Amino acid sequence: MDDLQLNNIQKHWDTLITSAISWAPRIFTAVISALLIYLIGSWMIRMIKKLVAKGFRKRNMEASLQHFLLNIINWGLNILLFIVVVTQLGVQTSAFVAMIGAAGLAVGLALQGSLTNFAGGILILLLKPFKIGDFISTNSGVSGTVQAIDIFHTKLITPQNQLIIIPNGVVSNNSITNFTQLGTRRTALDIGVAYDADLKQTKEVLMRVIQKNQYALSEPAPQVVVTALGDSAINLSVRVSATTENFWKMNEDLIIDCKEALDEAGIGIPFPQRDIHVYNK
C-alpha cells in the first residue's frame, strides 16, 4: 500500500471522527430527550387511565365495557407516545402512520361482521336496554335470562337451563322485550266458562281468588273482564300484577285456585266439542 492510499484512508478516518464528535452531542441530547418523554408519557398514561377508570366507576358503567374502553385508551395513548418518541429521535413518522392506516383498513375489511357485533355490544352496554339478570325475549323467538354481555355476544340462560349465545349485531338491530326492567309483570290468564254460566257470579268468584293470592299486587288494580264469545265458551281474562320474582308462582297458583273455585261454584269450564246431527232421508 503506497503513501497516497494511506493518506486517503487517514483523511476518511479523520472525517469520520470529526463527524462523530460533532454529532455526538445531538444524538446524546435526542436520546436523553426521548427517554424523558417516554418516562413522563408513561406516567401520564397511568394517571389518565386511573382518572378515566374512576369516572367509569362513578357512572356505574358495565365492567366489560370499562375493561374494553380502558384497553382502547391504553393502546391509543401508547401508540401516540411511540410516535412522539421516534420523532424525537429523528425518525420520519409518515411511514408509521401509513402502515397503521393500512393495517386498520385491512382489519376492518376482514372483520366486517365482527365489527357489526362490536358496535352492537357498545350500544347495548351504553344504552342498557337490558342488564345481567334480566329476562328478555327477542323477535326471533329466543328468550332467557341474561347471563353475560360481552363485546361481541350476549349470553342467555333459558328456563330449560340451555345456554344461548346471540351476536350483539342481531340483538341491537331487532326488537327486544324486557320482562324484568319495570320490576313487575302482569298476567293475562284466559278462562272459558259455559254459556249458561252467570257471568257476574263468575267474575266475583275469580276476583275472590285473586284477593286471596299472596303474590297479587293491589296496584295496578287486578281485573276480570269478558273478552269474547267463543265457539263453545265465553272467554274471560284474569289480569293480575306481581313482582318479577313472584310472577310464575302467582300464575301457577291462580290457575289451580281458579279451577277449584269454579268447580265449587258449579260453574263449568267447557272443552271444544261438536254436535253432529244425522238426518234420515
TrEMBL record:
Record PROSITE patterns: UPF0003
Q: Where in the cell is it found?
A: Cell membrane
- Ranges for domain Mechanosensitive ion channel MscS C-terminal come to 189-269
- Domain Mechanosensitive ion channel transmembrane helices 2/3: where? 72-112
Q: What is its main location?
A: membrane
- The gene is mscS_2
User: Protein name, please?
Assistant: Small-conductance mechanosensitive channel
Indicate the family of this protein. Answer: Belongs to the MscS (TC 1.A.23) family.
Which GO terms fall under molecular function for this chain's record?
Answer: mechanosensitive monoatomic ion channel activity
Quote the cellular component terms of the Gene Ontology held in the record.
plasma membrane
**Pfam families assigned to the protein according to its UniProt record, in alphabetical order:** MS_channel_1st, MS_channel_2nd, MS_channel_3rd
- UniProt xrefs under PANTHER family: SMALL-CONDUCTANCE MECHANOSENSITIVE CHANNEL
- What membrane topology was assigned to this protein in its record? Multi-pass membrane protein
UniProt keyword annotations, A-Z: Cell membrane, Membrane, Transmembrane, Transmembrane helix
Mechanosensitive ion channel MscS domain boundaries: 114-180
List membrane-spanning regions: 27-48, 68-89, 95-127
